[in-house]
Specification:
The protein contains 20 helices and 17 strands. The protein has about 500 residues and is α/β, with parallel strands linked by helices. The strands form three sheets. Strands 1, 2, 3, 4, 5, 10, 11, 12, 13, 14, 15, 16 and 17 form a 13-stranded mixed β-sheet that branches. Helix 15 (about 320-340) packs parallel to helix 16. The longest helix has 20 residues, at about 320-340. The chain is globular and about 75 Å long.
């Protein structure tokens, strides 16, 4: 039986009271998806539900979080006990009973809302038991730190098995450094990029790390005679090399930059692997928390080994706009490299979720570091069983090439005529069921919050209305760094 996502209840586009669960075969997301809607339409709630549905059918997820909402996935409580909710609510100033009374009301609403979709405490316990949520926060210790330049500074076994992939990851890391220095990051045109790439690859392919400190003396006095067809001096003068080394040394000495060179190695393939935990009388505390999948668990009385589906949330809400683009450019290049290393398949093996993609996938001619890998993923990832799901407030934010590769559309209320026109012609043409652009536009104008027009190109059926189910996670809104820390300790 093929895994199926059930994100909520649907009804016909004409609004008739014929209500049934919406079922989307998981592999339909191989053709990617796009969630559009103005502020307040319920996009983030729907994205959270779709992530939960993917995890429910054992599909690992990488979530890119720009606004701070998606760490709410840490707040998936296994029961409706108000005490679990109380630390995450703000009491009404007019409520004499404080936060606990507010928590009791919200917990009861959550219980009733989920019950409509057949989700009770048994299902919550099973979901919590079978999923592993982690938050990575580059440049901050709210979640796990990320070594953004690990492709450069930490030698990977990929140099022994996939040189092309290792070279692509290295190129992205060097481009990030050059952007920070205000220099040309283009691998094909930048002399600085070529010099750093040649020196770093020499060390990495020889079994050494290529940390920035070890490269500085080699930039000034390269341990090679030529680069390309030119001698080193003819390719780049010693004065220019000294300037580059001095700029890199200043960057290396920056306290804020040091936090980008600590923590988790950037390895998307490892993030997508099931997490094995051992629970029960025989399990140690460390084993019960997190054990990477490896060999069989040692024999212990009443011990249980559980394989958990991972959800890795890469949260960049704390970074400024330029830092976000730089970090996510490197991460998405690594995602693309990982995807291209996978065997082909028709089933959904992993899902990449990008909530609020505004500014990261803009129309031509804008080209931030995130655009090239995102467009490539939308074009190529389907062949490898990796789906991409993006959300934004309006389609004018997105490159048309990316839009044209999306097979699943979830449209909330769109603010302007231009927004609606951008997508409705395509939807009407594909529907093939007598649904004109004018009819769809009229529906979108009248949509209420938390209602979406859903068009699944692979289903062959008409567009339908969707009311997403309640999220199993407690949606308390954007989480601060301190709240992420607290949620990870719960």
């Amino acid at each position: 039986m093929k895994p199926t996502l059930r994100p909520g209840r649907m009804r016909p586009l004409d609004g008739r009271k014929i209500v049934a669960p919406l079922e989307i075969p998981a592999h339909h997301l191989n053709l990617h998806g796009c969630v559009l809607g103005m502020t307040g339409s319920g996009k983030t709630g729907l994205m959270t539900v779709l992530v939960e549905e993917a995890l429910r059918v054992s599909v690992p997820v990488l979530v890119i979080d720009v606004k701070g909402d998606l760490p709410n996935l840490l707040l998936t409580f296994p029961s409706f006990d108000p005490a679990l909710v109380a630390p995450w609510v703000e009491a009404s100033p007019n409520d004499p009973n404080g936060a606990l009374a507010t928590a009791a009301r919200l917990a009861d609403e959550r219980r009733k809302g989920l019950a409509v979709h057949g989700i009770g405490e048994v299902e919550l316990v099973d979901f919590v038991k079978r999923t592993h949520v982690r938050v990575i926060t580059p440049g901050a210790d709210a979640g796990e730190l990320l070594h953004v330049l690990s492709a450069l500074e930490r030698r990977s076994a990929r140099w022994d098995t996939d040189v092309e992939g290792a070279r692509a990851a290295l190129s992205a890391a060097i481009s990030l450094i050059l952007r920070l220095l205000g220099r040309d990051p283009d691998p094909a045109r930048s002399r600085e990029h070529v010099l750093l790439s040649v020196l770093a690859e020499r060390r990495l392919s020889g079994g050494q790390d290529a940390d920035i400190g070890s490269l500085l003396p080699e930039i000034v006095d390269p341990p090679l005679a030529t680069i390309g067809a030119l001698d080193v001096e003819g390719f780049m003068s010693k004065r220019a090399r000294r300037d580059l080394a001095a700029a890199l040394n200043t960057l290396l000495a920056s306290p804020s930059f040091s936090s980008w060179r600590q923590g988790e190695t950037l390895d998307v393939g490892a993030w997508m692997q099931p997490v094995v935990v051992r629970t029960g009388v025989g399990a140690s505390a460390s084993e019960a928390k997190h054990t990477p999948q490896a060999g069989p668990a040692p024999s212990c009385a009443r011990e249980e080994t559980i394989s958990k589906t991972p959800a890795t949330i890469l949260s960049v809400a704390h970074l400024d706009d330029d830092e976000r683009a730089l970090v996510l450019g490197v991460v998405l290049e690594e995602v693309l490299t990982w995807v291209r290393s996978l065997p082909g398949t028709q089933r959904l093996k992993a899902l990449i979720v990008f909530d609020e993609v505004y500014g990261f996938l803009p129309p031509h001619p804008a080209s931030p570091p995130t655009k090239r890998p995102l467009v490539a993923l939308m074009k190529q990832a389907r062949a490898y069983g990796v789906g991409v799901l993006v959300a934004t407030q309006n389609p004018m934010d997105l490159d048309y090439r990316a839009l044209s590769n999306a097979g699943l559309w979830c449209l909330g209320r769109l603010q302007t005529d231009a927004d609606r026109e951008r997508v409705l012609d395509g939807l009407a043409n594909e529907a093939g069921n007598g649904q004109s652009a004018d009819e769809l536009s009229d529906v979108l104008k009248r949509l209420q919050p938390r209602w979406f027009v859903v068009r699944d190109a692979q289903s062959g059926g008409p567009s339908v209305l969707l009311q997403p189910r309640w999220a199993m996670s407690f949606l308390r809104g954007p989480m601060t760094r301190q709240e992420i820390k607290r949620a990870r300790r719960k």
